[in-house]
Structure formats: C-alpha cells, structure tokens
What does this fold into?
Amino acid sequence: MAVIGKGIGRVLRSWRGDRGRKPGKGSSAEALSDLRGAIDLHASPDSGRLVRNERAMLRSILDLADVKLGDVLVHRSDIASVNADLATSEIVEQVLASPFTRMPLWRERKDNIIGVLHTKALLRAVQAHSGPIDSLEAGALAAPPWFVPDTTTLLGQLQAFRQRHEHFAVVVDEYGTLRGIVTLEDILEEIVGDISDEHDVSVSGVRPQADGCFLVNGEVSLRDLNRRFDWSLPDETAATIAGLVIRESRSIPQAGQVFRFHGFTFEVVKRVRNRISQIKIFPPPVRPEDPWKDPEI
It folds into this structure.
C-alpha cells in the first residue's frame, strides 16, 4: 500500500496547488491518472481478496466525481412507497413490513411523490396519539421531498447530503420526471461495496452455476459486477447488464439468443415484454496468472 499512499499524497498536493489552473503537466488530472496506474500496479498474481477489495474501493473513490446519480439510483419501478391516501393504520402496517427507514409517500399516482415518511417519526406519533390511529394524519408527519437532478455526480450528492444533513433524495430527469431515489447508503456502497444488516432483504440477483457461468437478473448493475468479480465490462453508456446487452446487440433480444462481446458470452434466458429479466453470463476463462475470483456475490 506504500506506493498508493504516496500517490494519494501527490494528488492532494496537486489539488491544493492547481486551483485556477488548467489541466496540464503536473496538474491534478495527471496526478489522478498516475494514481489510477498505481492502484492497478497494486495487483499481483498472489493478490488476496482483501487487496482486491482495497483496489476496488480506491478506484470507486476516484470515480465519485465522474459517476452520475442516474447510474446508481434505485429505479422508480423498484421503489417501496406508500399511498398517502390510505388509512393511517394501513400505512403503519406497510411501514412495519418494510425493511426501510424512510418511505416515500405518493398521491394519485406513484410518480407523484409528496413527502418522505421516517418510520421513527410515524411510530413516535402513534405512541403519543391518544385517539384512534386512523384519526392521525400520517401525511402531516412526512418531510418535504428533496428533488435532485439525475446528472448530479456522486461526489456532488455526497457533499450535498453532508451539507443538508439528509440521507434521502428523489432523483428526477431534466423534465422533472421521477427516475428513482438515492440514499447516502447507496453512495457509500459505491465505495465499500454492499452494506447489509439484519433488516435487509437478501436479493443478490446473481447465482453462480455449476458450469462456471452466472445467472444474473437484468437489473443488476455493471458497476456491481465489475467490482465484485474484477471484470471490466464497459459501464459508461449502460448502467445494468440488460442495458449493455441491448446496446451491444442493438435490439431487444428474444430468450435463447446468444451474444459475444468484450470477451464474455451472454445468453438471454428470460424476457418479459420488452424487458430482459434474466441473462446467463459466461466470463472469459481465468488465466493461471490471474488473481482468483470469488464465485459468490
């Protein structure tokens, strides 16, 4: 780690001295490039899982200023939310059944977010309320939604979370249309990997197969796959594995179709309407000199 430590020191010194200067020789841009090279040099045939995790974390930190929220958000179709017009007793039941601390409230349609309800605020209000639960207005307990554009970088959003002391934001596109949500935990997971606790729903989305391939849900992100297996699938123009297959094939493939690109083989296993829901991935053979890749995710 010594060479990486020196590289980080160089970048910090360069950043301090480069304010107001255009990128060039000796600039922070050059220092960042050198640091990325130093991180890659940290790999060796004997690299263990701990070293690979360190490399992945360092790369992710350097990528924070380049990755947009649109690449890491929880898509609107996967948001756990509550209809604000339900009886408060029903809202309490849904909140208690959910593993999440904050729940978006919607009215009339699911993409019309009118507030964010914190479970602690709800339970405290229920405990303090003396009358019937349904006479309590749950919507009045919700905080106003914080809308952020999907073009915001992870670094920018991380700084905004710190400044506002917030943990939850609603992501919209340039037209104000709901794209999804992002939390502070989502950004931290981009750095350190998946953070699970006893309340999390265990949905990996990736199942290793006996023949060495992986059965992957279409919505699994390319960044997660690259970080977990030390792959290098391009994630600049597609966020999910299904998006990559659609982009590379220039079509919405049917189940059973097989494609080969970037050294991998992809077999479409299941398609629901116009959505690829499951893909089988055959990675390139692991060369003897390559670091061992853990088959579990």
Remarks:
- The two ends are 25 Å apart (CA to CA).
- The longest strand covers residues 109-118.
- Residues 2-63 form one domain.
- Confidence is low (pLDDT under 50) at residues 1-19, 198-203, 289-297.
